[in-house]
Amino acid sequence: MTEERTTPLRERMIEDMRIRGMGDKAQKAHIRAIKDFAAFLGHAPDTATPEELRAYQLHMTDTGVSASTFNVRISSLRFFFGITCGREEMKRYMQFRSKPRKLPIVLSVEEVGDLMAAVPGPGLKYRAALGIPDHPRRAQCHDRA
Length: 145
Known about the structure:
InterPro entries: CB, DNA_brk_join_enz, Integrase_recombinase_N, Integrase_SAM-like_N
Largest sheet: none
Mean pLDDT: 84
GO molecular function: DNA binding
CATH superfamily of the largest domain: Tyrosine recombinase, N-terminal domain
Radius of gyration: 26 Å
Number of domains: 2
Keywords: DNA integration, DNA-binding
Organism: Rhodovulum euryhalinum
Number of strands: 0
Structural class: mainly alpha
Order of helices and strands: HHHHHHH
Protein name: Integrase-like protein
């Protein structure tokens, strides 16, 4: 394993994270995010311009970075610019992404029928396990709730 050179900027960020009591995993995630940003820029991240920050966000969007990864990287950049670099104004150029909401999968009437037909035996135990009432009247009451 090759030893990576720690720059004064990275050392300062690590110290800032330690001062705030961040755990090792959080520190590594922040460092990884800033390293990715620096690789995108091709120069030291503390000298980034608002346009470069915008281009990086577009790059993450265009390359299909998930909303959660995108937001973790933005949080890291906010910490980096706000705390380590003292460049609070850069936060204005960072946007979080909302996570897409997924609709639940709902079984059709036919699929429920197939499921019930596959239940072994007439026992109440299996119906209870599936959460299906054993009496039609109870099913109607259950639907009204």
